[in-house]
Amino acid sequence: MRRLDFAVPPQAAGQRLDSWLAEACRDGGEPALSRSYLQALTEQGAVLVDGVPANKKQKLAAGQTVAVCLPDPQPIAAQPQDIPLDIVYEDGDLLVINKPRGMVVHPAPGNADGTLVNALLCHCAGQLSGIGGAARPGIVHRIDKDTSGLLVAAKNDFAHAALSAQLSDHTLHRVYRAVAHGVLREDEGVIEAPIGRDPRDRKRMAVTRQNGKYACTAWRVLERLDGFTYLECRLKTGRTHQIRVHMAHIGHPLAGDTVYGPRRPVIPGGQCLHAAGLGFVHPRSGEPMFFEAPLPAYFLDALRRLR
Asked: How many domains, the chain?
């Protein structure tokens, strides 16, 4: 376990612990830690104010001492597997991968192997960040099994924490291409609706105020088809199934999505959704980076069918 110690300066008096601490870590030259990660540590009793376990919403007073006890990386449980990867970019800190449709990101019940994590463990010879835990080494963010496209993985905790901070403050940019049922009349729009577990079905997500968290999706029409719309979607937040849930919420579920759309899909094999663009600031160099992944064959075939 590693311990970080801070003294609260006069100008920080009255600030919330989690937001000040995230900034203090960056200013102090420590690895960037996202507010969500610091909040989780606080709930676990790993953040102390004047030696006492803190509350994540606690307001600070000048002269207080704050200690953050960072847990040791958890041992990696998944096993390396020699699975081909479409690597768009790689350096000593991170990789950008173009994930194929049908690949699960990390091991879970029912998908013990054959995942992106298994492939990364083999390719990186085990050199992946441990912040995500034993089942998710290196995984900064996820995309669904039946969604194709770009995601970034971290090789070390420094890169992971910095990328997670960008994910938390919405400066990690994600651009998707999708095909939705129906013809949208407007050329663009923004959906702001809280997303949480569906109170009637815990396996699904839903727009709900009962347990929902703020979620925002911006969309733009690229092409109107016969009974469908080809869209670009940009995520401000990254809730589970966000684009799928938001589009279904406004009456335009994604083509092929049998969970939130018609049970008998026009496009078989899963939802027509592709993570086409990914942008972030490199954790070490500070250089803005943006990557694009061309539409895969299944998506191009769906467009041909619908045109």
From this structure: 3
